[in-house]
């Protein structure tokens, strides 16, 4: 059985100047590479054969299987463990006939059709990619993206076919790649193929060892749920206790909450953040994203009025937040309204891992590609999903993060649990940006959750802190404050409601949360 965990694809053209190919291979194996594919471009048969033979001797010494790219004849000549073929190389059925029994055959797949064919051809493994855009190879097919890998992996359920991700996988995106590519049925990649991160390194041993470390911490951290959460079981009572702890933490620590949001509700969102005890910074420019990611407690990305400069900032800010393991709250405002929003949302979610995605039913339907609920611009139409609990849970599994579906009732899921919250007031639906404010409240509470979890083990996690509780706390703070504001005599309608809401967020007490929270965990 081949261990596909760290699959090295060689590329002599990528070696740093002065680096010997065989020495680099030796070091990579010492660093922990578990399988090697020899890839040669434009090399004469005799030279390829010589390289394959010498590479095989090195791999054998490490007891690591060697696979030959494309050339069945070379694989036969050196008794390689396997052959890897591309879509335009030797067909799998013919390679199978030519090769001795037990020789592994792998094929590159970019889409469902290619994957279906590979499965029916009886391949042993598939290389799914490109996962990221890459400079190692000129791509003539669309990038699959981390989320696309998960959809393809689902197809392998019930088969013995193994899968490695390939294309642009680096140390800096490895954890995100592993986490984000798990299918809704919990099928993860069996390994990752790496080229330049190892081959182009002047220290291939260290490069391989670092990649192995991430692989093993991810695997020991287990599934999405463990990677996202700090607690494994919730009850309504434990959730309320947790929310109050976070709420107090926000007030005690005043975390910085970085928000890239729309120009309709920017001031409202900043005011709500302050009222909760956090500190907003509404910064959009690429050049400052890294600095802010070091000091902030959480990031909110809201595409309400998407403009090019802010969009560039969003791309970078999310990656910086992931690198710092800070919570990223994403609000795909009006995603169904235009192709531009849709493709921007896809690029953002393929670039970084959101910790929480928040939207109304129409927005989340558009994100999930469902036409069960329609939207009009930034608003949802109709009464929502027939089974909102399952919808929220499935979307959380698909996007590998916590999902908040807002509305008269809010549904919050981490892919396993669904918290059903029925607090709120209809006046929230009669002011603009209540959803955007909800995003700010969630981000503030996720920042509090992150501070509370500071002492915990960060290894193998993409985000620090219980973002499920952060999301519930943000929604409860807003909706309970809205109920209290609506009760006030000075509130006569939407115009007087908004300032009262800010006052109530400011004076909200743990007692009000305990007394008023209407929460059910399913
Ligand atoms: N009729 C209602 N009754 C109770 N709560 C409501 C009602 N409408 C909205 N809310 C609350 O308001 C918050 C925002 O949800 P909503 O679904 O209105 O956001 P949205 O459509 O994204 O808003 P916007 O586009 O104005 O920012 C949620 O926490 C939700 O519970
Ligand atoms: C009205 C509106 N348009 C873009 S963003 C926004 C705020 C509510 O989502």
TrEMBL record:
This is Thiamine biosynthetic bifunctional enzyme Thi4. It comes from Lentinula aff. lateritia. The lineage of its organism: Eukaryota, Fungi, Dikarya, Basidiomycota, Agaricomycotina.
């Amino acid at each position: 059985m081949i261990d596909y965990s760290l699959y090295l694809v060689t590329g002599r053209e990528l070696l740093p100047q002065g680096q010997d190919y065989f020495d680099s291979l030796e070091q990579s194996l010492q660093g922990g590479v578990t399988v090697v594919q020899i890839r040669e471009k434009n090399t004469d048969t005799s030279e390829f054969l010589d390289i394959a033979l010498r590479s095989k001797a090195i791999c054998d010494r490490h007891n690591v299987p060697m696979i030959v790219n494309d050339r069945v004849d070379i694989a036969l000549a050196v008794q390689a463990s396997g052959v890897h073929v591309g879509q335009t190389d030797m067909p799998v059925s013919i390679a199978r006939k030519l090769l001795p029994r037990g020789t592994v055959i792998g094929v590159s797949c970019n889409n469902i059709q290619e994957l279906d064919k590979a499965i029916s051809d009886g391949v042993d493994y598939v290389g799914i990619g490109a996962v990221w855009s890459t400079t190692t190879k000129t791509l003539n097919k669309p990038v699959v993206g981390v989320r696309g890998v998960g959809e393809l992996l689902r197809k392998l359920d019930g088969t013995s076919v193994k899968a490695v991700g390939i294309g642009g996988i680096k140390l800096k995106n490895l954890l995100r790649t592993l986490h984000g590519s798990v299918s809704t049925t919990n099928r993860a990649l069996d390994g990752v193929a790496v080229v330049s991160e190892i081959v182009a390194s002047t220290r291939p041993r260290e490069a391989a060892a670092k990649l192995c470390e991430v692989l093993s911490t991810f695997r020991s951290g287990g599934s999405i749920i463990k990677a996202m959460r700090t607690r494994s079981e919730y009850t309504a009572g434990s959730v309320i206790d947790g929310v109050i702890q976070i709420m107090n933490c926000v007030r005690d620590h005043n975390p910085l909450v970085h928000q890239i949001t729309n120009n309709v509700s920017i001031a409202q969102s900043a005011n709500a953040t302050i009222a909760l005890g956090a500190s907003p910074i509404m910064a959009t420019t690429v050049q400052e994203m890294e600095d802010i990611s070091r000091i902030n407690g959480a990031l909110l990305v809201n595409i309400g009025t998407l403009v090019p400069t802010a969009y560039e900032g969003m791309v970078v800010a999310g990656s910086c937040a992931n690198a710092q393991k800070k919570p990223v709250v994403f609000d795909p405002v009006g995603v169904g309204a235009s192709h531009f929003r849709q493709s921007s949302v896809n690029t953002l979610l393929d670039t970084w891992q959101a910790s929480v995605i928040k939207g109304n039913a129409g927005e989340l339907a558009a994100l999930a590609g469902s036409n069960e609920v329609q939207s009009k611009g930034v608003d949802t139409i109709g009464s929502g999903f027939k089974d909102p609990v399952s919808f929220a849970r499935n979307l959380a599994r698909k996007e590998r993060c916590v999902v908040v579906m807002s509305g008269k009732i809010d549904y919050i899921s981490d892919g396993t649990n669904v918290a059903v919250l029925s607090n709120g007031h209809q006046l929230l639906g009669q002011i603009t940006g209540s959803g955007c404010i909800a995003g700010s409240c969630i981000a503030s509470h996720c920042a509090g959750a992150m501070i509370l979890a500071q002492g915990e083990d960060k290894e193998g996690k993409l985000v620090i802190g219980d973002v499920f509780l952060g999301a519930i706390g943000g929604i409860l703070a807003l909706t309970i404050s809205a109920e209290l504001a609506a009760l006030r005599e000075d509130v006569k309608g939407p115009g007087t409601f908004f300032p009262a809401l800010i006052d109530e967020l400011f004076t909200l007490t743990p007692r009000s949360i305990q007394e008023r929270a209407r929460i059910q965990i399913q």
